[in-house]
Amino acid sequence: xxxxxxxxxxxxxxxxxxxxxxxxxxxxxxxxxxxxxxxxxxxxxxxxxxxxxxxxxxxxxxxxxxxxxxxxxxxxxxxxxxxxxxxxxxxxxxxxxxxxxxxxxxxxxxxxxxxxxxxxxxxxxxxxxxxxxxxxxxxxxxxxxxxxxxxxxxxxxxxx
Amino acid sequence: xxxxxxxxxxxxxxxxxxxxxxxxxxxxxxxxxxxxxxxxxxxxxxxxxxxxxxxxxxxxxxxxxxxxxxxxxxxxxxxxxxxxxxxxxxxxxxxxxxxxxxxxxxxxxxxxxxxxxxxxxxxxxxxxxxxxxxxxxxxxxxxxxxxxxxxxxxxxxxxxxxxxxxxxxxxxxxxxxx
Lengths: 160, 178
Hints:
heterodimer; A: mainly alpha; B: mainly alpha; 7 helices
């Protein structure tokens, strides 16, 4: 069934895109609503996962753009909080690392974010990503490299 | 940052995924050994890639429940669409009625006005005729009913008279006996 097969993938895209579990749940629900309403428009000869990932990507980017101000102010607030109040006792090390990594991913440009999530979290190949979004494989590779580089640089800056 | 460092940055992912030629890969390894900032960046990127798998999470139970309820919600929305009245139809009917009134009561287009009046006249004639037929049918219906009703009343009157007569007869008999 549709939900059993694809809900994890869609939820993980949203979760790592927004770094917020509540927003991820709402966005996942909205994406599935959209999928159900547009199922009759889907042509059977086309790749279903590609269609689903395109809807998910477009919805996440649109949602982020519409609420950009809110997300940016929240990110600034999170940075202030993590800089002062967070102690190792509050969370386990692994949990805090995950939260930190998600927050850094959420600060990347939306286009880079989606591709990075699909490649490094969902484990899709470059070729699969390229065919799903109809972009050249070279573009996917350069975007992934750019996203990883930005992430690594932000961590290096944080360590210093 | 040297131009070499910039060059390394552009191929760092490919280097970590062993997608470069052996010669190019060796060149980068040599640079990384000699350049601490680039080495640190490479180590950080490796660390991030290792941690990325931990970012996968299962869908929470409450969300699965919400998702399984979606088909019902969409069906309800479709059901609501069936009773939807098309606004364009109402608007066009309203416009036609408005223009007919305008042409009927004003003489902007005399030919249209005349045509409309003749149509209304024939409708009136039809109504009067059918009204006459209705009157006739109504009358005949009353007649039929009257016939039945009258029959019933005459029958009941006859019955009453008979019973009165019998009663009087018995009373007179009793009077004689008593």
